């Protein structure tokens, strides 16, 4: 449970993950990933093994859990798996991400969630291919509910689902990460209407899972951070799909490096969960 006294588990005792609040060492980390290409470099880096007994999730679901101990942390990496019918296609998007988040939190009781993945970036806001962002805020851009009751736009706000992520100023300082807002929707491309809402969300990166993972993490009161690596820009001349496929493998290597630095940081410091 929460301890009011800091526990000395750390290589860098004076630093905290968050800045203030209660202190509790993180022991179990849940990494949620949507694509196999994003997952495998991390499975290798942390020497994780696949859960073959399969009892964690309901029979028949494609979700895959890898696990292992790395620097005294219990690392669980859950990949949403390949679609059950369309073999070979990763289960990307908000539905699978929400379901996997819910089931994994229930089963594993993690102290921290890391949602890691690729994202599209806005050149106009400074994003470049291969940049890795730590996300400060998430919101949706494809859930439009324009019902206003008198002057209140609560339905609209519910659709946007904006929330702040778990605050980690020391992590940002230590790893010198780019920080920005993320907008989530169930499409890889960007319709003109999506673009308006993404810009209204002030997002620098867009993905297909983040805000859904954040919603479930909030529901179940688990701190969550979001690490998103840019495979393509969305406001340039190039085709999003082409650029995405061209850069995917290289950017996933960069993503894995950053995630492992984050995990190294977590393993080496006092943890604060507010
Ligand atoms: N992941 C990588 N590129 C993306 C994009 N353009 N939109 C949503 N998710 C992405």
TrEMBL record:
Pfam families: PNP_UDP_1. GO terms for molecular function: methylthioadenosine nucleosidase activity. It comes from the Eukaryota. GO terms for biological process: L-methionine salvage from methylthioadenosine; nucleoside metabolic process. Residues 29-263 form the Nucleoside phosphorylase domain. InterPro entries: MTAN, Nucleoside_phosphorylase_d, Nucleoside_phosphorylase_sf. Coiled coil: none annotated. This is 5'-methylthioadenosine/S-adenosylhomocysteine nucleosidase-like isoform X3. It comes from Phoenix dactylifera. The gene is LOC103722735.
């Amino acid at each position: 449970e929460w301890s009011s006294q800091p526990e000395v588990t750390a290589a860098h005792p004076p630093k905290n993950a968050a800045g203030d609040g209660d202190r509790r060492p993180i022991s179990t980390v849940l990494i949620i990933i949507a694509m196999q290409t994003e997952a495998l470099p991390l499975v290798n880096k942390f020497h994780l093994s696949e859960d073959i007994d399969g009892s964690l999730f309901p029979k028949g679901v494609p979700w895959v859990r890898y696990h292992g101990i790395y620097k005294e942390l219990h690392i669980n990496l859950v990949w949403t798996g390949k679609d059950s019918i369309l073999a070979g296609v990763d289960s990307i998007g908000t539905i699978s991400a929400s379901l996997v988040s819910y089931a994994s939190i229930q089963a594993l009781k993690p102290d921290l969630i890391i949602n890691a993945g690729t994202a599209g970036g806005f050149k106009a806001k400074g994003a470049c291919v291969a940049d890795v962002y730590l996300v400060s805020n998430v919101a949706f851009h494809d859930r439009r509910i324009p019902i206003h009751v008198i002057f209140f736009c609560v339905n609209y706000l519910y659709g946007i689902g904006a929330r702040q992520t778990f605050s980690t100023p020391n992590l940002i300082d230590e790893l010198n990460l780019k920080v920005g807002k993320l907008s989530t929707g169930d499409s890889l491309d960007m319709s003109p209407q999506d673009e308006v809402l993404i810009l209204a969300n002030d997002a620098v990166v867009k993905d297909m899972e983040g805000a859904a993972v954040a919603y479930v993490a909030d529901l179940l009161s688990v701190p969550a951070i979001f690490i998103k690596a840019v495979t393509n820009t969305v406001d340039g001349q190039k085709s999003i799909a082409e650029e995405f496929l061209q850069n995917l493998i290289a950017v996933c290597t960069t993503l894995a490096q950053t995630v492992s630095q984050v995990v190294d940081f977590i393993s080496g410091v006092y943890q604060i969960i507010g």
